[in-house]
Amino acid sequence: MATHPHLHASALPFPKLKRAVWLAMASMTMFFLALTYAYLQRHGLASGWMSPRLTEILSANTCLLLASSIALHRGRQFLAGRGLDGAVRWTAAALGLGVAFLLGQAEAWRVLWQAGVYLAQNPNSGFFYLVTAAHAAHLAVALGLMVWVLMRLWRGRLPPDRPLLMDVTAIFWHCLDITWIYVFAVLLVYRG
């Protein structure tokens, strides 16, 4: 397909980078589906590790992650409307909420450790540690992207007519939100 020399890649209907991110998100989704499938296959092997306190922490963390997604979406809206100050504020809020989510996940691990629930203790708690660590690793990458977006916004180097970096970061972030909601639902329905 020939393109006009003055068109930027993000001005195309669906840039290659966005396609690559969607493919990466599909493989990430398959990874988490495989983890939860393994969890469900071994579910009956051990129980009693997920306390009401842990459920409260994970519920609060889920709210933080959803709020960060809303904030990032608002940042994208402000960028599209050429409101760079609003884009900076909302993206910074999304970043802060994302970091708070990670800190909340660390608190969930601490609660488990204090209760004497360790990685190798039973298959269900092992799954929890594995899936939350994998999700946190993906989230750390997304937070790094968000920092990059924020720095470019702050310096005025993320033009509203070429928001590809913001778009790619938002796709990644929202997919991580959906993935977490799915994992959390599995944990709630099939708690050990």
Characteristics:
192 residues; mainly alpha; Four Helix Bundle (Hemerythrin (Met), subunit A); 0% strand; elongated; disordered N terminus
Outline the biggest β-sheet.
none
Number of domains: 1
* Terminal-residue CA separation: 54 Å
Helix content: over 70%
Mean pLDDT: 85
CATH topology: Four Helix Bundle (Hemerythrin (Met), subunit A)
The Cα radius of gyration reads 19 Å
CATH level 1 name: Mainly Alpha
C-alpha geometry: elongated
Number of strands: 0
Give me the secondary-structure category.
Answer: mainly alpha
| Total helical elements | 5
Percent of residues in beta strands? under 5%
SSE string, helix = H, strand = E? HHHHH
Give your account of this protein's structure.
- With 192 residues, this protein is mostly helical.
- It has a single domain (52-189), classed as Four Helix Bundle (Hemerythrin (Met), subunit A) (Up-down Bundle), CATH 1.20.120.80.
- The chain is built from 5 helices and no strands.
- α4 runs antiparallel to α5.
- The N and C termini lie far apart (54 Å).
- The model is unreliable at 1-10 (pLDDT under 50).
What is shown here, in short?
It contains five helices and no strands. With 192 residues, it is an all-alpha fold. Helix 1 runs antiparallel to helix 4 and helix 1 (16-42) packs parallel to helix 5 (164-189).
